[in-house]
Structure formats: C-alpha cells, structure tokens
Amino acid sequence: MGVELVDLSVPVVTGMPVYPGDPEVEITPALTVPEDGVNVRRVHMGSQTGTHVDAPYHVDDRWPALQDLPLDLFTGPAVVADARGLAPRAPIGPQVLPPGLGPGTVLLIATGWSRHWGTGEYAAHPYPSAETAEVIAAAGARTVGIDALSVDRTPEAGEDDFCLDTHRVLCGAGAVIAENLRGLDRLLEAQAAGRTVEVSLFPLRMAGDGAPVRAVARISS
Fold first, then answer.
1. Radius of gyration over alpha carbons of the chain, in Å?
2. Considering the entire predicted model, what is its pTM?
3. Segments of the chain assigned E as strands
C-alpha cells in the first residue's frame, strides 16, 4: 500500500479563528515583486495560532518552556482515540482511550470538531476531562493532540467559567499539547485497518509558551 502523508494542519490566513482573547491574525504584503523584486509577507499573530503546540510553560512560569523540551516529544508512533459523536462542550472520559498508550506514543484525540473550523460552533468542542488527563499522564504519554480549539472547555461568550485543569494535569506531567489539528478521521481509518501511523508536530524554534507547527502524519502498511 506504500506510504501516505496526511497534513493535520489548518491554514494560516488573515482573520482565521483564534482562542478568545488571543491576538488576531493578519498577513499583509511587506515587499512585492513589482516594487521590490521579491515577495515578502508581514505576519502578525500569537504564539498559539492555528495548529500549534503548548509547552508546559504556557500555564505555569515554573515549568519548562518550548526551547527546553527534547525534540522527541514532537514525534512518534500515534494512537488515536475516537471521541466523535459527543454533545457540544461535553467532557471526554477515559473510556475512549485506546490500547497501546504509553511512553513514547503520541495520543491524538479525534472529536470530529475540525469540521466546524471557521464557524461559530468551533468553540463548543468536547474536551478531555481532568480525570482523563490523569489516566493519560499515568500511562506515561507525554504528547497529546486534539482536533479542537483546546484540551480544556472553551467558555461561551460572557461566561465566567475559565478553567485549565486538563492543561495543568498534562503540562504538570511534562507533556506537550497540540491543538487545532484536523484530518484525524483518516488516521482512525488507518488505525482500524491495522496500518502504522507516525506523527510529527515540530514547532517553530521559538522560546516561550508554544509555537505553530506543520503537523503531518505518515501512514504505512
């Protein structure tokens, strides 16, 4: 069957969805071929833009920043949890976690919510509960990704219910978190067919809380 590469990243464009309160994305021409001989874009965006990874420092100044993390946290064999079909803002329990979860594996949680990207429904995603995060951490997994805006519940507009419990459990265990993935349905199909899935989530070499990534899965026989 050969090797199949699957892009798990959302496009970075002006006006794209961002987490409430994060910097808006604006990409404009800085130099152009007619005037300057080259095309160069001016990019304004936050470190948590689009498909990105969170370092533990994202939620606690005492925890490791992106530049302090080993590269092996950003790649490895993937196991995909099927959490599709849940109600908006529903917690995801540990019963969805797949076998094979352990040290060195990349856990990807497929909620199916990437289909709402660019709509008002996207912020109403399901999310892994803190209890589920505890099970993940206890299994030794240190790389967790989701096809949603956050691994924690995103509050509704005007709602005073901001919580980072799942972030704190995972980041407190030294894990990195990838958010705003897409294309996980294809990985579930490959997993069900017994094919091997490896994922790369390498971020830009930036210091601090996190950075955008070009997330790619490699499916082989």
1. 17
2. 0.96
3. 4-7, 26-31, 40-44, 52-54, 75-82, 91-92, 106-110, 127-128, 143-146, 176-179, 196-200, 210-212, 216-220
Write phi, then psi, for 43 (nearest 5 degrees). Answer: -120, 125
- The residue among 213, 212, 183, 177 whose CA lies nearest residue 63 is 177
Distance from C-alpha of 29 to C-alpha of 40, rounded to nearest angstrom: 6
Place 46 in a pLDDT band, splitting at 50, 70 and 90: very high
Parallel, antiparallel, or unpaired for β 106-110 and 176-179? unpaired
User: In degrees rounded to 5, what are phi and psi of residue 10?
Assistant: -90, 155
Residue 215 near residue 53, CB atoms below 8 Å: no
Q: How far apart, in whole angstroms, are the C-alpha atoms of residue 7 and residue 214?
A: 8
Give the 3-state DSSP-derived string for 130-146, with helices as H, strands as E and coil as C: HHHHHHHHHHCCCEEEE
